[in-house]
Amino acid sequence: MNAKRTVVAATTAFLLIGGGTAAYAYWTTGGSGTGTATTGTTQAVKVNQTATIAATYPGQGPQALAGNFNNPNSGPVKISSVTATVRAFTAQADGTKPACTASDFAITGTSTITGSGPNNEIPSGNAQGSWNGLSLELLDSATNQENCKSVTVTIDYVAS
């Protein structure tokens, strides 16, 4: 019987010490680290003129300019205004009369932008949104403007 007690005692000791079960222990700690995130960027939006100005003449008055936008970005963009200027040029078919220049023209008004969505943004894609509110006028000056006949002026637009 002594042998049985010895076996039982040895088995009990073995189990209590951890021979047949797994024991787990851990410590807790804090720590810190860093990471990064990158933002995208936008491409320039192209301002299109859709209004046709033809056969303007001195004293006719302002002719309405209007258009839309080509937005090459993958998402919508916010445009607040469009400004315009007549590109510098000189036309003088008749050397006996004053040259026609960009100063013979005036662009007036304040642009209004129409987009979509809650922030009136211009969606991605071509011919999106619209703008208006600007006008082009061939001024009626006190000088001979014969050299402004049949002139095509280039208007440069900037969206911001």
How is this structure best described in words?
This protein is mainly beta. Strand 4 (90-91) and strand 5 form a beta hairpin. It is 10% helix and 32% strand. The protein contains one helix and eight strands. The longest helix has 16 residues, at 2-17.
- The secondary structure category is mainly beta
Question: Which outline best applies?
Answer: rod-shaped
Radius of gyration: 39 Å
Strands ordered across the widest β-sheet: 1-2-7-6
Helix content: 10-25%
Count of DSSP H/I helices = 1
In total, the number of domains comes to: 1
Compute the number of strand runs: 8
- Which assembly state applies to the chains in this document? single chain
Which sheet architecture does the biggest sheet show? 4 strands, antiparallel
Tell me what portion of residues adopts beta-strand conformation. 25-35%
Termini separation comes to 100 Å
- List low-pLDDT spans: none
* Topology order in helix (H) and strand (E) letters: HEEEEEEEE
Overall mean confidence score, pLDDT: 89
